[in-house]
Amino acid sequence: MDKDLIAQIEYLLCIRITRVESLSGGDISKAFLLESDSERFFCKCNSDSGAFQLFQAEKAGLEAIAETKTIATPKVLLCEKLNEGAFLLLEYIEPKQASANDMQRLGQQLATMHQLSSSNAFGWKTNNYIGSLPQANEKHTDWIAFYTQKRLLPQLQMAKNKGGLSRDEIPSELQIIKTCETLFPKVKPSLLHGDLWSGNYLIAKDGTPYLIDPAVYFGHHEVDVAMTKLFGGFDHSFYKAYEEQFPKTAGEHERNDLYQLYYLLVHLNLFGASYKTSVTRILKRYFI
Fold it and tell me: Which residues are catalytic?
């Protein structure tokens, strides 16, 4: 970690950093554990030109979730520009292995967050990011229009531009809308984490669940649940607790595929052809 950055953090927080440890797991930014005489911090650094905007969006998402008072997020301490890039400093949450009770609590708290809504529209007050890709959030009162125009179509177009999908493999907007009209019920906007896979929650030593790395917006609550199932799924106790507040409804299995399609397209656009088979399976089943 750059000595000038350490000095900047020490100056801004009026502390002395006594230890720095590199942490693994970040695809986009470098991550570090910082220790002072009395506290520990989590620091993300990124040298890209758009890093400050990326971290500002993450900060806004963490704070929006925290403001619901339903589920915890790490406190944001600093979000600053650097000569090259930017850094984000958070309180450090020491994780533990999640128990069934911990996952039950996470499911309960996520459902409670989804039941609260401070918006009559789908979207968010600003655009943000899904991973490092831009995520458009202009508000819509119609969920199908929002999901088609702001989620699927931009990622499909990006996949075409990158050569990940051919023109013949991409459905039209009309095809997408017709399928969604068949399968999507009328829904109310819920605040979503937006990227809820197993790497984006923590269970603290005292059992408190924390959400990290959000891509927030108001959308259908099933989107977050679909993402939890994409890479292996969460513990059964999580889903059981969640479904006590949001019982399954007709068509959920099909909507799960359509909501996972967005994330699979994101992975196709970020990481390449290994995700194409999963993408085309869903496209052929529902649209082509």
Answer: 195
Confidence of residue 1 (pLDDT cuts 50, 70, 90): confident
DSSP state for residue 204 in the 8-state scheme: B
Helix locations, the chain, DSSP H: 3-13, 51-67, 100-115, 143-146, 153-162, 173-183, 222-228, 236-245, 252-271, 276-286
Q: CA 184, CA 181: separation in Å to the nearest integer? A: 6
pLDDT tens-digit map of 73-82: 999 999 999 9
Cβ–Cβ under 8 Å, residues 126 and 57: yes
Beta bridge partners of 203: 209
**Regarding predicted confidence, which is higher, 24 or 284?**
284
Residue 25's pLDDT is what? Answer: 66
Output b/e per residue, 120-159; b: 16+ Cβ within 10 A.
Answer: eebbbeeebbbbbebbebebbeebbebbbbbbbbbbbebb
Q: Which pairs from 75-82 meet CB under 8 Å and 24+ separation? A: 77/13, 77/41, 78/9, 78/12, 78/13, 79/52, 79/55, 80/8, 80/12, 80/52, 81/52, 82/5, 82/45, 82/47, 82/51
